[in-house]
Each structure stands twice: as C-alpha cells, then as structure tokens.
C-alpha cells in the first residue's frame, strides 16, 4: 500500500465523527457569516492605544491630568440649615490643548426647585409605596436646595461671565488657557441644606427630635471643577443622581466655621488642633496615636450627651489641609462621640477614626474603628499602602457614601440598644465598602459619571475579600455564624445567578452608563464583583490575578484610568488572554450554563466494526488493504460482545499487541498504561459565556478525579464539545462545576447520570397522595 493511501484511510477511520460534523456544517454554511468567535480579540470594542494610554494598559509617555486646587472659607448656619462658602480655585492646564472656557460642577442643583432630574423618569401607581418616597413625591413642596451663586470673579476681582446649564456651569475666561498655564478665580455661594433622611441625599443633615440637634454629613457642597481628559475632553455629562462623580486631583485648604460646641472632622490634616481641642482631648489624642489594638475615646458619650444640651451661640473654625485629593467632605454635630486608634500601614501610622451619635451605640463603639483599621490593612495588602494619614467612618442614618479620608455609614441599633445580625453585618460591610472607596475611586480615580462599575465593582470585589479576612482576623465577631465565616452579601458566584438568569429586558451589560441600567446594585456592584472573584479563584488563580490587580492599582493610583486600562493591564501582567472573559461578563448580558449531555462507553476490538465495514464496501477494499487499526466498539452496539468487557486493549486487539511487540522493549511495554474502559463524554453549553469546563469524574471504586479544561475548549464549537476518558476504572458518575464556582444558572444538567431531582410540584403531589 502506498503511503498516501495508507494516510488517507487512517484519517478516514480515525475521524469518522468528523464526517458527520462536516455534513451538518454543510447545511449551516449557506449565507456565510463574519467572525463571531467568542475568543476574537476586542479590537472593535477597545479604542486604539495612543501616546496617552498604551496598549499594555499603562499610562503612556504623553499621559497628563489636570490639577484643581481650592482655598475655601465655609460657614454652617445650624439654626437655619444653610451653608455659606467662598472659594478660590486655581486650575492648571496640563493638557496639550488650549481651553477656551472652564466647566464647573454644581451638583447641589440636582436639588434645585426646577431640577429636571425629577422629571426624566416614567411613573406609575404601585400597589404599595414607601412612606418616605410617597411623602416627598406627593405631599411636600419641592425643596429648594440648589446653589445660589453670588458671584464668579477673576483674580483681580472682576466679574467673570458664566452660564448655568442645570448642574454644570461654564465660566468664560477672558483669555484662552494655554497648555501649561494656570488660572485663578473665585466663587461665592450658599444653599439650603437638605434633610438627607427624608430626601435620600448623599449629603445633608439628620434631625433628632428628642434633643433638637442635627448631625451634618456635608459633601458635593462647593462648586467643583469638572475633569478634562484625553478620553472625554470635558466630562460635563449632567449629574442626574445615579452616575456619581468625576473629579481632578488637587490640594485643599479649607476653614470651616461651625457652632463652638460642635465636633468636626473631614478630609485633610487638622492644622489648628490646639485651637479646637481641649487639653483633655489633646491628651487622649496623643494616647490614641500609640494605641494599635483598640480605639481611644477623644470625646466620650457622656461628654457628647452634655454637649447635646448646650446650643452654644459662639463659633469655632476648624482648619483642614489636604494634598492630592479629588474631593472634600466633612461631618459636624454637637452629638458626636469620637474615637480613634493607630494602624500600621507599611512603615507609616494611619489613624482609624469614628464619629457617631449615641444612637449608634453599642454597635459603633464596638465595631466601627475596628472595621476601618481592618479595611486599610486588607486593601493595602492587595493594592498599595494607604497613602493618607487617616480614614474616618461617620455614622449617618441610611447613608453609605464615600469621600477622601471620610465616609458616611448606616447601621443603627434599636432604641433599647439591641440589634439584629442583619444590622450588625450590614454596618460592618458598609464601613468596609465605603472606607474601601478610598482606594477606588478616590485614589485610583476612575470616572464614576461614565462607569459606575469601575469603582463600585472593584470596591465590592475588594470588600468581599476584606470581609472574609475580617472573619478570619476576628473570629469572635463572627461567632454567631454557623460556619464561622463572614456572611458576605455579594461576591459568591451562587449569589449572582438569579440576576443573570432574569428577564433580559431588565438587564444591561456592565459596560453601560449608570443612568441607563435597570438594576444598578446588581449591574455595577454585584455582577462585576462576582466576575472578578471568579476570575481570581477559577480562571486565573490567585497568584496571577493578585499580581495583575496590584499592577493595575499601582499603575493608576493618583491617575484617571478607563475600563480598557484595567482590561489591558490584567492581561499584560498575567499572560492570560481574557478578551473572551471581558466580552462575556462585561460587554454582554449572557450567562453561564454548562452541562454534561451524553456519555458513551467503548471497548477495543480486533475486528472491523460496522462503520469501517461500510467504508470498505464503499471504496471496494478488503481488510487486507487496511493499515494496522484498533477498532472501538460501543457497548451495546451490534459489534459489541461481552468478551470485550473489562479487558485491556492488548488482550482484545491482536493488531495492537503486534504493534507494541514490534516497537517497544519489554521494559517499555511493562510501563504502558492498561486502560480497560473508554468513554466519549459530550459536554454542552447552553449559556453564552465560555468558562473553564470543571469536571469531576467519579469512579466505581470510590475514587475521584478533577479535570479543569481551559475555556478555550469552546473556541471551535460554542455549543458542544466531546472528551474521551480512557481509564482502568469504570466510571460511576460525572459532575460539572462541583463547587459551584462559575455562577452556572442551571445545575439540572450538571450531573451524569442525571440526578433524580424532584420538582416542588412533584413533592407536593406526593405529599397530598400520602406517599
Ligand atoms: Zn460604593
């Protein structure tokens, strides 16, 4: 037989299944198609790399960012709940572009009387409405909480023309601002402070009717520069309420005047501590700086309760100075209890701080500062050392909101001091989350207005890790849990399947603007956090993931990254092709569903089987024309007989035996494997997202083998793929994704033989019948 014929026949026989596949393909070939392969690179979705942002995901040689420095004098009128401010903004144009005008953000205008924000959503009458929402929608006159701009002046005191378009103000500077130049201008303003408990604002006050006091958490309170960048030009997309903030870095000097009996803390270093602290407070503060294991009270509950009654008419000015921050927030009240402790981050001491009214106790004195300190350590380990000197957690009812060095958090016990597990873990979780926002987006400064997931998703992912580490660091804190594990609300794959298998008309891809998504919590927090957790645990492994994630955080700390900078860096630092992962999880609303469809059992024989006989007949050849072949016959087929069962191929195939004898030494033959069972397993993938195929093979002798096939196994057939198992042991069962780590939405197809799962309805019927 000539070599060519020999080759042609081998190929034919060894791949009979290919013939069938080709027949099917022929039918589907009509019309053709473009490259829709799920493993295609994301060239069409990604922008072209350039001098500002490189193809590796790092800042490029021409990367720039603008700088906005603020000097502000702020005064709180506690009696009338008004906030007054005068600010000087110095704006540095580091871009190569000439700027003809400047855009300033007036976020408080979302609360102005004529805001369009309230009008842009459709409405309907629900069967039941929340009392707060009902009251503010239908009973109350619209609150007038927008900015009152008194003037905008240049550095010589001359009025500058400006135009306000809802939450954006354009300032027309007399001379275009050239590359490398600075411009200073000042704005005077005031506004009515809202009740954030009634109106669900990120900033405002809570009123305590029992003592007549207010606790203020104040943010977005001053006209702030918009971001100008190589990606968006001016980011002047209106603030509608969901899409949060995009802000340049800068230095702040802020003097805040409040009633003399208030306790205040905010972004930055307190530069006049001796003026605003009593001698006793100074002593306690010095002690707190050396207390690494537990917080020290700077203001006790007893002192706070006394202050609640004082209502001083005097004023006090707190002076704060912050370098390289993207925003500024502060909290002030005479109700505040204040505690703090030191935490070692790298070579440096950072202060973990809490401010809370007595209504937060006993929960807050127990857990707040502990959670702050833990968060700083956990996040620093996974990203970079926390660079600021303090992090403050302020208790504000219903709030969970973040600013540089300071954040507002919910978690209030009942009036008698009791609290549920839900309140306790909710409080610790929100503190971890909001303190964690210092890293994303306060330092890794992404554009929240455009991409909610870049800060919320990354932060919720890190929150999950920090929560699990909290449970390990403080076992006594999670002793009330059955499994002694921290009960994370988001992050576990099984927690996202309900959302991902939901009605497609109410799901948007993660890569959507936060104003346009249906379920913001699942879209920007839960799904990206879970995707990253799966990427870390199942797709990349901790070592590769952690290095790449850290690389992203370090490349972009104190800079403005885009989604592509993240996606590219994760590949760049790991050598794992992830385009398929980003496409499936971030650019689509598809879900994961992988199963086992069919298992066929084969044995080796010396005699040609029916398929081979058919080909011999078609081609007019005899057995003598065939090359040496091993024939695989399916158990139960007409070629099969019981004598083949449980034998090794050498026993049942003389051709194989001869081949081995001719080509292997006795020693080599002794070392060959002797599989007795051959299985062809068909796996199916009804879900769109390709994922690693994790298979547990269980054998009749009780042993188990786990094989993870890389996601690329789906690259040539997105719906179905087969694998052959050759084993000395008989297979008893197969389980797909046995640890439920891929967020598979339908596990009814995850086992062979199929688990006899009874539906609830069947169970109900049996119960009725009395079975
Ligand atoms: Zn958040």
Features:
binds zinc ion, 7-stranded mixed β-sheet, 21 helices, elongated, alpha+beta, 6-stranded mixed β-sheet, Immunoglobulin-like, 771 residues, 29% helix
Profile the largest sheet: 7 strands, mixed
- CATH superfamily assignment of the largest domain? tricorn interacting facor f3 domain
* Name of the level-1 CATH class of the largest domain: Mainly Beta
Q: List the uncertain runs.
A: 16-21
Strands of the biggest beta sheet: in what spatial order? 4-7-2-1-13-17-15
Bound small molecules, deduplicated: zinc ion
CATH topology value of the largest domain: Immunoglobulin-like
Q: In total, how many domains does the architecture comprise?
A: 2
Count all strands and give the number: 31
Counting copies of identical and different chains, the oligomeric state is single chain
Overall mean pLDDT: 94
Looking at the structure, what is the overall shape?
elongated
What portion of residues belong to β-strands? 15-25%
Computed CA radius of gyration, to the nearest angstrom: 33 Å
């Amino acid at each position: 037989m000539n070599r060519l014929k020999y080759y042609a026949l081998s190929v034919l026989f060894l791949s009979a299944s290919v013939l069938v596949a080709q027949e099917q393909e022929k039918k589907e070939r009509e019309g053709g198609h473009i490259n829709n392969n799920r493993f295609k690179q994301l060239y069409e979705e990604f922008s072209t790399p350039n001098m500002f942002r490189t193809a590796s995901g790092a800042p490029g040689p021409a990367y720039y960012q603008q700088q906005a420095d603020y000097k502000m004098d702020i005064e709180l009128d506690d009696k009338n709940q008004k906030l007054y401010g005068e600010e000087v903004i110095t704006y540095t144009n580091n871009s190569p572009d000439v700027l003809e005008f400047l855009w300033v953000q007036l976020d408080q205008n979302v609360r102005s009387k004529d805001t369009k924000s309230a009008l842009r959503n459709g409405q309907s009458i629900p069967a039941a409405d929340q009392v707060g929402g009902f009251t503010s929608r239908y009973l109350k006159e619209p609150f007038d909480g927008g900015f009152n701009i008194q003037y905008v002046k240049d550095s010589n005191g001359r009025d500058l023309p400006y135009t306000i378009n809802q939450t954006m103000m354009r300032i027309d500077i007399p001379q275009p601002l050239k590359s490398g130049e600075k411009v200073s201008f000042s704005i005077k303003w005031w506004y009515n402070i809202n009740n954030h408990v009634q109106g669900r604002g990120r900033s405002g006050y809570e009123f305590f009717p029992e003592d007549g006091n207010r606790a203020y958490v104040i943010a977005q309170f001053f006209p702030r520069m918009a971001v100008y960048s190589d990606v968006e030009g001016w980011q002047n997309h209106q603030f509608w309420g969901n899409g949060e903030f995009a802000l340049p870095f800068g230095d702040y000097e802020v003097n805040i005047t409040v009633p003399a009996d208030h306790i205040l803390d905010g972004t930055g270093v307190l530069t006049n501590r001796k003026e605003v602290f009593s001698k006793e407070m100074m002593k306690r503060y010095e002690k707190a700086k050396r207390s690494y294991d537990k917080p020290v009270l700077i203001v006790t509950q007893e002192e706070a309760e006394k202050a609640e009654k004082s209502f001083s008419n005097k004023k006090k000015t707190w002076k704060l100075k912050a370098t390289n921050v993207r925003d500024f927030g502060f909290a002030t009240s005479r109700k505040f209890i204040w505690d703090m402790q030191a935490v070692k981050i790298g070579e440096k001491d950072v202060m973990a701080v809490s401010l809370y009214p007595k209504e937060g106790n006993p929960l807050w004195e127990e857990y707040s500062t502990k959670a702050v300190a833990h968060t700083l350590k956990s996040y620093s380990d996974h990203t970079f050392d926390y660079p600021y000197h303090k992090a403050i957690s302020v208790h504000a009812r219903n709030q969970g909101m973040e600013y540089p060095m300071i954040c507002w958090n919910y978690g209030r016990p009942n009036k008698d001091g009791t609290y549920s597990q839900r309140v306790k873990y909710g409080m610790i979780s929100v503190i971890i989350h909001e303190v964690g926002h210092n890293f994303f987006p306060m330092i890794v400064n992404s554009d929240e207005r455009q991409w909610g997931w870049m800060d919320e998703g990354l932060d919720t992912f890190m929150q999950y890790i920090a929560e699990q580490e909290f449970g390990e660091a403080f076992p006594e804190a999670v002793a009330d849990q059955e499994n002694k594990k921290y009960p994370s609300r988001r992050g576990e794959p099984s927690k996202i399947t309900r959302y991902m298998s939901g009605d497609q008309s109410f799901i948007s891809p993660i890569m959507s603007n936060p104003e346009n998504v249906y379920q913001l919590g699942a879209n920007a927090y839960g799904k990206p956090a879970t995707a990253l957790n799966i990427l870390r645990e199942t797709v990349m492994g901790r070592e590769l993931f952690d290095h790449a994630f850290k690389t992203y955080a370090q490349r972009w700390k104190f800079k403005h990254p885009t989604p592509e900078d993240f996606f590219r860096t994760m590949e760049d630092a790991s050598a794992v092709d992830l385009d398929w992962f980003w496409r499936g999880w971030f650019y689509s609303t598809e879900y994961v569903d992988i199963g086992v469809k069919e298992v066929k059992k084969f044995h080796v024989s010396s005699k040609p089987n029916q398929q081979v006989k058919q080909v011999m007949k078609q081609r007019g050849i005899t057995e003598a024309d065939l090359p040496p072949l091993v024939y695989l016959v399916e158990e139960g087929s007409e070629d099969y007989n019981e004598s083949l069962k449980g034998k090794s191929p050498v026993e049942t195939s003389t051709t194989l035996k001869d081949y081995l004898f001719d080509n292997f030494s006795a020693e080599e033959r002794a070392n060959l494997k002797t599989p007795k069972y051959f299985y062809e397993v068909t796996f199916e993938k009804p879900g769109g997202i390709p994922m690693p195929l994790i298979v547990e093979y269980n054998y009749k002798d009780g042993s188990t083998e786990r094989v993870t096939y890389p996601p690329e196994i789906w690259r040539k057939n997105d719906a179905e793929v087969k694998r052959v198992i050759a084993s000395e042991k008989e297979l008893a069962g197969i389980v797909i994704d046995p640890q439920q780590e891929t967020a598979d939405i339908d596990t009814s197809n995850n086992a062979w033989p199929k688990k006899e799962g009874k539906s609830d309805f069947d169970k109900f019927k049996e119960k009725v019948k009395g079975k």
